[in-house]
Amino acid sequence: MKKAFHLSVLTLLFVSPQTEQVWTANIDQIRHAARMIPGKAPLRINVLKFAESRRTKNFSVKGAPNEPSVQARTVFQVVYGDGYVMVDSGMDQQVHNFFGRGVVEPYDAESARQVERAVRGARAILVTHEHGDHVAGVIRSPFANELASKTILTRDQVQTLLTNPQMPEIKLTPEAAARYNVVDYEKYLPFGPGVVLIKAPGHTPGSQMIYVVLASGKEYLLIGDTAWHMDGVRNIKGKDAPWIQENENALMAQLNWLNGLYKTEKNLFIIASHDDEQRTDLIKRGILGNKLE
Ligand SMILES: [Zn+2]
């Protein structure tokens, strides 16, 4: 009897969440995956900011001073010779207002219209994660059905949107969920020539990073909200925002990995969705285009 009891306790410990595997990724494997699908590599990446939220910097980077900071709301466009893929889909003003929590924050209607147009014209739409500011543009669009058929969501993203959405506005019904292209993968998924999805749960269960290598050889890692500001990567500091729930262990492993790449890979640009200073800088340097095509 006693022995059996001990065994069952051991079994429990063994499968408990504390023993979950630490997140890892390998840039060489990712580069290899980027060459798996034949075809011409993408030519450039554009970014468009359509709204902003004001959060003091200490929320984005733990331990940073309590000074004003802008969180850009953005989408990215990966342009091939014969079409383009959107990374994230924007959001309508109602969802934007949710993030303001009672404060009306800047929303550029003309830029938002350009995002809508680009999303409709895309060959495919990927999302870094299942939060409203990244996915509402496909879920709440008047053209939601048309967009769903060319949007790729991961199983984890769909699961959150069905059962535990960030806000009621983006909740998916099972009928709506069935219209999307749903994928599941272990670590890396070659998406197309030069583009690889990297599973990175942490900020949300369905978070992923998107690696892109252009025909020119320039490399990009669109890290979504893994860090809200690149100081999080530079200093290996997580966020300090009480209104979000993250898997801190996974996130720290991701920030560590990104920090290593940041220091050694001078041709690889790690891009945080909401870092407004980085966006301005990379546009100025010609690393990102400043308009959607
Ligand atoms: Zn976000």
Could you walk me through the main structural features you see in this protein, from its secondary elements to its overall organization?
- With 293 residues, the chain is of the alpha/beta class.
- The chain has one domain: Ribonuclease Z/Hydroxyacylglutathione hydrolase-like (Metallo-beta-lactamase, Chain A).
- Helix content is 35%, strand content 21%.
- The chain is built from twelve helices and eleven strands.
- A hairpin with an 8-residue loop joins strand 8 and strand 9.
- The site of zinc ion has 6 residues, from helix 6.
Topology (elements, then pairings):
Layout: H1 2-15, H2 27-34, E1 44-54, H3 57-60, E2 70-80, E3 83-87, H4 93-100, H5 109-121, E4 124-126, H6 132-139, H7 144-148, E5 151-154, H8 155-163, H9 174-177, E6 181-183, E7 188-192, E8 195-199, E9 208-213, E10 219-222, H10 230-234, H11 248-264, E11 268-271, H12 276-284
Parallel strand pairs: 3-4, 4-5, 5-6, 10-11
Antiparallel strand pairs: 1-2, 2-3, 7-8, 8-9, 9-10
Zinc ion (ZN) binds at residues 131, 133-134, 225, 273-274.
User: What is the alpha-carbon Rg in Å?
Assistant: 19 Å
What is the total tally of β strands?
Answer: 11
Shape: globular
Q: Helical residue percent?
A: 25-40%
> Which regions contain 5 or more consecutive residues with pLDDT less than 50?
1-5
Number of helices: 12
Straight-line distance between termini: 71 Å
Q: What would CATH call the homologous superfamily?
A: Ribonuclease Z/Hydroxyacylglutathione hydrolase-like
Structural class comes to: alpha/beta
CATH fold type: Metallo-beta-lactamase, Chain A
Instruction: Walk across the major sheet and give the strand order.
Output: 1-2-3-4-5-6
CATH class division: Alpha Beta
SSE topology string: HHEHEEHHEHHEHHEEEEEHHEH
Q: Note the main sheet.
A: 6 strands, mixed
